[in-house]
Amino acid sequence: MSLPSSDAAIPPLPRAKAPRGRRSMFLRRPFFTVALIVAAAYVLAATFAPHVAPFDPVKQDFMAMMQGPSLVHPLGTDSYGQDILSRVIYGARYALIIGIFSVLIGAAGGLVIGLAAGLSGGWLEWALMRLIDSILALPSLILAVAFIAILGQGVDKVVVAVGLSMIGPFARTVRADVMQVRVQLFIEAAQLMSIPYLRVVWRHVLPNVIFPLAVQVTIRVSEAILVSSSLSFLGIGVTPPTPDWGLMIAEGRDFVSFAPWMSAMPGFALALLLIALSIVGDGIREEFDPKLRRGA
Amino acid sequence: MNDMTSHPVTTQDAAEPILRLEGLTVHRGAAKILDRVSLSLGRGETLALVGESGAGKSTIATALMRLLDGARVEGRAELDGAGDLLALPERRMVRLRGSRLSMIFQDAGSALNPSYTVGRQLTTTLRRTLGLSRAEARAKAVELFTSVGINDPDGRMSAFPHQLSGGMQQRVMVAIALAGNPDLLLADEPTSALDVTIQAQIVRLILAQTRARGASCIFVLHDLALASQSCDRIVVLYAGQVVESGPSREVLERSRHPYTRQLKSCVLEIGSKDLTAPEGTVPPHSEMPVGCRFATRCPRALPRCAGEAPPLVPARDDATGPLDHQFACWNPE
Amino acid sequence: MLRQALGKIAQTLVVLFFVSVASFGLLKLAPGDPIQIMLGSEYSQESYEQLTAQLGLDQPFLAQYADWALRFVQGDWGTSYVARTDIYTYAFKEALPVTLTLASFSLAFAILIGVPLGVISAVKKDTAFDAGSAVLALTGTAFPSFLLGILLIWFFAVKLQLFPVMGYISPWQDFWGGIYHMILPGLTLSTYFIAMITRLTRATLIEVMEQPYIAAARARGEPSWRVIWVHGVRNIAMPLVTILGLQLGTLLQGTVLTETVFNLPGIGQMLTSAVLGREYMVVQAGVMMTATLFIGVNLLVDLSYPFLDPRLRARK
């Protein structure tokens, strides 16, 4: 084979273009950059919550119940006299922790099921596919509600329930990626060279699956946050007095006619984070998703 | 075809031409896709626009239909009795399309809406352009389908485009284009998507139908041989400019422009019906030479050609004076 | 085509079987002893065993499943321990219609607003209108619906007092009253779908409008409204229906939240109170109904393709 010479015959790719594109991603996508800064601010607020928050988020002050926004309480207080700003800041902690950990659980579960479905073949693959189909037949919130019914309430339970409910979509994408790798010849070639099966998976399949999976993880964090705060809003997620946004919105709902800030403040905190994360997610997907890039 | 080739001398002595196109220029962004294209077409005449792909042939047809989106169009296109097509308000243009002038597209397979039956696409056109009732339109549609050579016209009415062969689809397109009895038919490479065996059939069909209706037709073709066989006149385009025009036989047998000659020799050499491009490539719009645009590929180029653009001038016969045959070249054959 | 359809139906039935096994398993996984819950705090060993046998809980798993599935299909969904009502009546006859009313109302809203918005954005591509609707669409897809609902209540019901704060009137009994009570919940739930449909309509229509058959329609003198609405929009039906089918899950989970915001007695409220009351059989009923709805609608979407796109019909 004349590999070296054929290599030379291929016209050089416009190499200067790729690095320049990468470097200016923040300039090319101003929305993305702003959204990323907003998301980063949430992460910082969550990390340094004890230093940033003016009050103890669960300190009740019955002398200062349901006060509107003021200098002392910039976002007002709730029906227990708890400072809403402090609760919103601590709420970012819970939102991000629950979002990130549940997505990781979902991704891990999806990876296992998706790999198994993609690599097994035969009736096992068929059965696993129908299993994925049936998980996908339920919207993630309904699934999470079902898991909560079994597990009970609390932060850890919410993480597990939301994580389990997200396995379906992850499994589907992982399987699709595995199928794509599987049809590529190199796996067969590796098998012909009698390299142990697990090593083929480790060396050839995983790398092709992990990267798209990582992109998915970043995109789906916002979905996990939405589902977890929905659970809390329904009153079956985390339990009071945890400063969870969903819970705070639900608590304020009954007072919406005379203390609308109680729901609105944590609500806007949640909405802003979700919007920022979805812009960041779209940007990451458009920039790194091999499927979208091929189409473009 | 009567004896058009030895047709006398001066320009159309016939009645008022059906279309007179003057200085058609089309800009798209910084590029000038068409540069001062002028031509005129008599009633009942057929004209072929010939050239390589990218020469701007199809752009002329689309510009006349006013279907060019995102381009700047200059010039005049006088359609007899309707005024300047390029300046009419869109409302009046909509009424002209399909009734006074209509267009046959390159690939009938994608120019027919996949979601509607071919019968419906034809009858809606009939009902709008001729004001027919539902039943009349259906009868007329069956008649049109028969005349364009569709067998089982009644049954085909309820067929969807994808259920027909390429040739049948193009026949449907022809029927739709003829539906409003247009004076001017624009056929944009109507056979390029078809098998070679069917190509001639379709061209003959379009010609026969336009002649039978006394309509005029502009054919966009890239096959010089086919153009000279089928059309009365030929206009040769190169890089958005007319380089030679005249009666078919005149242009083919006494071509003056080196580019026309090259087009011709390509056909002769290869002996195929398809035109293969001459050596070299058309310069990109950004690097268009100031002089003759063909100079970079021309075997007869003079020093003058690079710097000065040749005007379109009539050929002269020593005995009779100027002929109905124009070319743009400093060093004609 | 018939073979394909039968294949689809068979596949759907298998998925339904899996879902039913899973939701039956849910009951088994649930903590706590259902017999104990049913008997209350004081019971004898004898009555415990008697009830266990009576409910078939001493049988192997598969036998129990078969027994349960048979009864489920017949509409015997068990009794709510706490409410002491028949779950079939409670879930299927009372809660489901509320959810379906809200869902179909929102869907109609979303299509009636989203498609025209998307069409206008596509036709006026790259104008201020297009940019504005893009921003709205992005916000709409990311904004949590329950927050939106509260804001709508605060503004329209509390401030302007135009609409009722909450509550449900069946449009089957009082049509206009039902519609009136559905406007705010419908708007809340449909915002996400308006945004999504706008984006999808815009993207697909822009692609369709570049097709030669659009130019051909213009060339034969079709007026521009016909070119857009008859020739363009007709050809985006299939991607639109596909996405709507796939997004039905999102719609259903949206109803759960919206029902809570507006105090509508649908599946959402039923599920929430069931979780709080540890009524696993009610949760099970909710899960089964949602999944069956989702699977059923997507089967319908699959079966509708040949009607939406003639190219998918068998060639003559």
UniProtKB/TrEMBL annotation, chain A:
Lineage top rank: taxon: Bacteria
Alphabetical list of CDD domains matching this protein: TM_PBP2
InterPro entries: BP-dependent_transpt_permease, MetI-like, MetI-like_sf, OppC_N
Domain (ABC transmembrane type-1): residue spans on this chain: 92-281
Compartment(s) of residence: Cell membrane
One GO cellular component term noted in the UniProt record for this chain: plasma membrane
Transmembrane found in the keyword field: yes
Pfam family, one: OppC_N
Residues that span the membrane, as ranges: 30-53, 94-119, 131-152, 209-238, 258-284
Any one of the GO BP annotations: transmembrane transport
UniProt key word Protein biosynthesis: no
Entry keywords, A to Z: Cell membrane, Membrane, Transmembrane, Transmembrane helix, Transport
Family: Belongs to the binding-protein-dependent transport system permease family.
Protein name: Peptide/nickel transport system permease protein
Organism this protein belongs to: Salipiger thiooxidans
From TrEMBL, chain B:
Protein name per Swiss-Prot or TrEMBL: Peptide/nickel transport system ATP-binding protein
Gene3D superfamilies, alphabetized: P-loop containing nucleotide triphosphate hydrolases (3.40.50.300)
Organism ancestry: Bacteria, Pseudomonadati, Pseudomonadota, Alphaproteobacteria, Rhodobacterales
Domain annotation ABC transporter: ranges: 19-264
SUPFAM superfamilies hit by this protein: P-loop containing nucleoside triphosphate hydrolases (SSF52540)
Coarse class of the protein's main subcellular location: membrane
Subcellular location: Cell inner membrane
Cellular component, GO, one term: plasma membrane
PANTHER family (UniProt xref): DIPEPTIDE TRANSPORT ATP-BINDING PROTEIN DPPD (PTHR43297:SF2), OLIGOPEPTIDE TRANSPORT ATP-BINDING PROTEIN APPD (PTHR43297)
TrEMBL record, chain C:
Transmembrane regions: 12-30, 102-123, 135-158, 178-197, 236-262, 282-308
Topology of this chain in the membrane: Multi-pass membrane protein
Taxonomic superkingdom: Bacteria
GO molecular function annotations of the record: dipeptide transmembrane transporter activity
GO cellular component terms attached to this protein's record: plasma membrane
Compartments where located: Cell membrane
Principal localisation: membrane
PROSITE patterns: ABC_TM1
Domain ABC transmembrane type-1 residues, every copy: 96-301
Keyword tags: Cell membrane, Membrane, Transmembrane, Transmembrane helix, Transport
Family recorded in the similarity comment: Belongs to the binding-protein-dependent transport system permease family.
Name of the molecule in the record: Peptide/nickel transport system permease protein
Protein's organism: Salipiger thiooxidans
Taxon lineage: Bacteria, Pseudomonadati, Pseudomonadota, Alphaproteobacteria, Rhodobacterales
